[in-house]
Design brief:
globular, 60 residues, mainly alpha
Length: 60
């Protein structure tokens, strides 16, 4: 499972919000990020769950 940085997630979510408002399907085609993941990011962003936006680190 790929890990995405907080900056990448924020950039993608900004594309979903007005005035850009690209569709999730279009962003999926452009980036390869799954649609369920994109919906999760958008909902986390809207709900103010910024802690969930932090990229997870792999140790080892």
């Amino acid at each position: 499972m790929p890990r995405y940085s907080r900056e990448f997630k924020e950039t993608i979510v900004q594309k979903m919000m007005p005035p850009n408002a690209q569709s999730i399907a279009q962003i999926h085609r452009d980036t390869g990020v799954s649609e369920p993941t994109l919906y999760n990011w958008r909902n986390q962003y809207k709900n103010g769950s910024s802690a969930e936006f932090v990229g997870k680190l792999r140790l080892g």
